[in-house]
Amino acid sequence: MATNSTITFISIPHLLVVRGDATTIIMYSGDLPVLPIEAPPLVEGPQNEQTIAFGYMDFYWAGCDGLRALAQRLNHPIYKIGALFYGTPYSRFKGLNDCGYGAFVRGGESPSDFTKAPGFLNWHATPNRPEDFNRIPLPANLKIHNNMFRVEYGPDVDPYALDGFVRTALACRELSAWATTADGRAHCHAAGIDPDTLIRFKREPVSGAYCRVTELYAFHPKRDREWFVAVLAEALKWASRPTAA
Question: Do 233 and 139 touch, CB atoms closer than 8 A?
Answer without folding.
Answer: yes
